[in-house]
Design brief:
Blueprint lengths: L2 E6 L3 H13 L5 E5 L5 H13 L7 E5 L5 H12 L3 E4 L4 H10 L5 H14 L10
Parallel strand pairs: 1-2, 1-3, 3-4
Helix pairs in contact: 1-4, 2-3, 4-5
């Protein structure tokens, strides 16, 4: 099974995981990691442990908050050492729901692209045309 690790500042990761669970029910293979107040080395170590677990060997998608931030930087360090790890920035609930509904249907590289597209598609303004 492909797993997902939500890496965020503060309690955002836990809140997203709980929101997805309220929509989807059981969400196996979804993990929340709050980096506050962890050091970069500790974040990398925790992600390394997850990437090395038997559960993650089919793929581990890390959804981080900001590209270039601590969550992103730590996840990219791990992805460089583990070819089965991919990293996406801009984590949001549509991305997580896309992951949960498509991970059993799409090969891992296609899943990563679909999650990115669905996450972007989940951003809109009302009334339309104001973005």
């Amino acid at each position: 099974m492909v797993i997902c690790v939500l890496v965020t500042h503060g309690p955002v990761a836990e809140a997203l995981a709980k929101a997805a669970q309220s929509v989807m029910g059981d969400t196996p293979g979804v993990y929340a990691l709050s980096i506050s107040p962890l050091s970069l080395e500790t974040i990398v170590q925790k992600l390394e442990e997850m990437a090395g677990s038997p559960e993650a060997q089919e793929g581990m998608l890390v959804m981080a908050t900001l590209r270039g931030g601590s969550c992103w930087n730590a996840a990219c360090k791990v992805a460089k050492r583990h070819p089965h790890v991919r990293v996406i920035s801009g984590v949001n609930l549509p991305m997580l729901l896309s992951f949960l509904t498509k991970r059993d249907r799409l090969p891992f590289p296609e899943l990563v692209g679909a999650v990115c597209r669905d996450g972007a598609r989940g951003i809109s303004a009302y009334p339309e045309g104001q973005e």
